[in-house]
Amino acid sequence: MKLFRNLIFTLLLVNFFYQPVFSQDTVRYLNREYRDTNKVAAQYVVSLFFTDSIPDSKWVYPNSKRWEKGPFSFKDTAKYGYWQYYSDSSTITKEGRYVKDSLEGPWKYYHPTGEICGKVMFDDNDVVEAQYFDLEGNPVSDDEANHFAMFPGGQNALFNFISQNIHYPNRARNRGWQGKVYVQFIVNDTGKISNVKIFKSSGHKIIDKEALRVILAMPFWKPAKMHNQKVNMRYQVPINFKLTGRRPKKNNANRWEPPR
Predict the structure, then answer these.
(1) Are residues 80 and 184 located together in one domain of the fold?
(2) With a threshold of 0.90, does the pTM exceed it?
(3) Which residue from 21, 174, 200, 228 puts its CA 20 to 30 A from 253's CA?
């Protein structure tokens, strides 16, 4: 009887030490490099669980309802196997397989209404073959399906907009302050400008402030597309504040120059 009790205790002990590393309610907070961080700084909130004895995970973006799911290796900090991505409305946006964080094999991409907008074949993240479709299933060209965000009318129109709307600050002009400002922002998937900030300062706050004002005044852009889906894109614009004379006139048209 004592031997039987010892055997039960040993089995329970073995079972305890061989429990899965995570259970269904395990949550981890990760940064962009997939490293653990705190809840406030997290870029991803990851729920870990098992599906048919296979480790699986669900990734949610803080301040958003977008989410994705699939197997993830914390040892390699990499995605493996079959993954699915979902929009804020829980509509599937894309699905396919990873091999150590690289896109591999066939992937499908979807319009917001659920129709297939693209079929892409990958080899270690490189596109081997791609087909894109509109909502009616008609073919879409690669140039139409993949492009950068664009200011209405193109880059020349962007420079014209800045030139016509910039105002050289009086204080900067009177003191002969000049400089180039690099302004960075995001064109989101609706074309709206957001997250505007100074990437590289001119060295004069008053000039930097004017550069920010003009960028914030821009109209909606044509959003970027990748695999026939509208996506956010980070953009950077250099604005060169340059005085053309010793005492430039207040409304001097050359108070700003497009980048060279």
Answers:
(1) no
(2) no
(3) 200
